[in-house]
Amino acid sequence: MMTSQEYIESMRKLNLKVYFMGERIENPVDHPMIRPSLNSVAMTYELAEKPEYQEVMTAISNLTGKRINRFCHLHQSTEDLKNKVKMQRLLGQKTASCFQRCVGMDAFNAIYSTTYEMDQELGTSYHARFVEYLKYVQDNDLVVDGAMTDPKGDRGLSPSQQEDPDMYLHIVEVREDGIVVRGAKAHQTGAVNSHEHLIMPTVAMKEGDKDYAVSFAVPGDTEGLFMIYGRQSCDTRKTEAGAEIDLGNPTFGGHEALVVFDNVFVPNERVFMCKEYQYAGMMVERFAGYHRQSYGGCKVGVGDVLIGAAALAAEYNGVPKVSHIKDKLIEMIHLNETLYACGIACSSEGKPTASGNYLIDLLLANVCKQNVTRLPYEIARLAEDIAGGLMVTMPSEQDLRDPELGPVVKKYLKGAVGKDTTNRMRILRLIENMTLGTAAVGYRTESMHGAGSPQAQRIMISRQGNLEAKKQMAREIARIDTSLDK
């Protein structure tokens, strides 16, 4: 396994093509707006080195027998599934941000089982290819950007009906030695911090859409691939001198990017689906289930930090023992642990797939994510309530450091007796960062739209909820004679 420093140096060696705010970024690793997100990924390596976290951060590969980072692992039991959620909560607690390796891990597990079943029915050889690819990833401890979401264009039209065929990533040429693809993947978490991109289809497909049924992997610096880095709330604060307090979370962060494939060639050994449209839906459904499970860990860890920040804000405001403040903190804890309970529940009810790796309970995973589309918003609202209006009206750090204005700021922004004004500003800025600033992208908005927007889970809950069986239970208890019904 790589160390955190080895990971950082490995990213320096890549010749990534990254654009941000109209300019090409020659050195993404040290760019002030990008580096906090790289630090979050580096934490996935740092914790894996620590003996006290070995059980949750690492696993023994079923492919090589070696100890690997859990982010590269295929789940072999319900205990593995639970440890995944525990790992994600731990990393959320350590970074208060998105650590960007979950999508790749969830893609590994979805593609592994789907290619196995596809090969069994169709006589293809994608599973063996994917196993060799995953061995490469595990042996080199790589960060892989799992990429599913297409721009989609007109949402009322299927991929093949789009006015512009590139609205969904698609195969434009099949060669003897591989395929050529064109299109883009949107909202790609951690794309600029990834060694590889692992592509999946984004929707279930019919035969007319078969050119869009494609799964493959390419290095981040492959020819024809480039990224446009996403703009985030308060992102330019990272380039301002004397703005460390104003950042709220100066060390860690997350990012998303638009990843564009401009006639990219993919060799056969890295192609895991090529027009087998019948299996696009299975791959999408399994990936979505795994990723909806993930939110029962990562968002809970970030929630832990937000709850702690709200409790500290109450102390700096001088009201930690006021009954309604205590009640709000209790409610925040209750909501956060409810999310965690869902993540653990869908893991505990997991079952092995035909390929041998374990799949979570899909119904409970979708219930987990449906709750995540709602409860973090209430946790954030309560944090803002406890923090007070000063969170969004206080002067900048530059004013605090100014020889003339500084004493005035310290005098009038002071809260509880014996509490430092600077520390009060720090904790309020952290809450701002998590509820309104750059971290809100990964906590609030991603809670809503990540791993599928709310209606996607409701469709799956309807499909998995087995309403007919529940109706039959009611008939039997009530002694319904169905012959009497017309």
TrEMBL record:
Pfam families linked to this entry: HpaB (PF03241), HpaB_N (PF11794)
Organism: Porphyromonas crevioricanis
Broad enzyme group: lyase
Entry keyword annotation includes Lyase: yes
Gene designation per UniProt: abfD
Domain of life: Bacteria
UniProt domain HpaB/PvcC/4-BUDH C-terminal: residue ranges: 280-478
Sequence positions that bind FAD: T189
Transmembrane domains' residue ranges: none
Alphabetized PANTHER family for the sequence: 4-HYDROXYPHENYLACETATE 3-MONOOXYGENASE-RELATED (PTHR36117:SF3)
Protein name: 4-hydroxybutyryl-CoA dehydratase/vinylacetyl-CoA-Delta-isomerase
GO molecular function per UniProt: 4-hydroxybutanoyl-CoA dehydratase activity; isomerase activity; oxidoreductase activity, acting on the CH-CH group of donors
Domain HpaB/PvcC/4-BUDH N-terminal: from-to ranges: 3-273
Enzyme nomenclature, EC number: 4.2.1.120
